Amino acid sequence: MSKSCIIFLLVFMTAFSAGAQKYITKTGHIKFYSDGQLEKIEAHNRQVNSVLDFSTGGFVFKVLMKSFEFEKALMQEHFNENYVESDKYPAATFVGKVTNIKDVNLLKDGMYDANVEGKMTMHGVTKDLTEKGTFEVKQGKIIGKAKFNIVVADYKITIPGNVGNNISKTIEITVDITLDKANM
Q1: Do the beta carbons of residue 44 and residue 69 sit within 8 Å?
Q2: Taking the alpha carbons of 164, 29, 10, 129 in that order, is the dihedral positive or negative?
Q3: What digits encode the pLDDT tens for the residues 77-131?
Q4: How far is Cα 156 from Cα 151, in angstroms, rounded to an integer?
Q5: How far apart are alpha carbons 117 and 58 in whole angstroms?
Q6: Residues linked to residue 22 through DSSP beta bridges, in sequence order
Q7: Inter-residue contact 122 to 151 (CB < 8 Å)
Q8: Domains of the chain as residue ranges with CATH
Q9: How confident is the model at residue 20 (pLDDT cuts 50, 70, 90)?
Q10: Residue 183 gets which letter from DSSP?
Q11: How far apart, in Å, do the first and last CA atoms of the chain sit?
Q12: Which of helix, strand or coil describes residue 107?
């Protein structure tokens, strides 16, 4: 894991109150999918870092853009160089809160609705984000899932004119993480 990822996680973990119930992953999964006229574009990132402070609902994600893997190498190259400009904007982050964290019972396995709100930063642009997802408490772990759409123009990601009509302007994001209790 890169030095910046470790520093990011440490800063946010120590920012939460002492004695808090923290859950963490470094192997979360984010998929994005676009169904345009020209072709379907799908990429997976299985190096997603996330921390949940269960006592406050504080929730943090960091996703390295170069860690998205595509079926075709040329798509991956275009994604990093032409669209998200990974060298200039290496990561996307979300800093927010699960607003109904008190509805999740860590002592009882089951499915729980999760309402999440915060700020997502990608491509140098920060936007408010409010989404719904689920938490499944299972054998001491928290499995978080969500599916939502973003408009690429909202994050000042431009699609070159020669393919602009062939690529979807909306991207479907699927989040699937398994958080383990942090040993602090």
Answers
A1: yes
A2: positive
A3: 989 998 999 999 999 999 999 999 999 999 899 999 999 999 999 999 999 999 9
A4: 9
A5: 10
A6: 53
A7: no
A8: 3-13+23-181 (2.40.128.110)
A9: low
A10: -
A11: 19
A12: coil
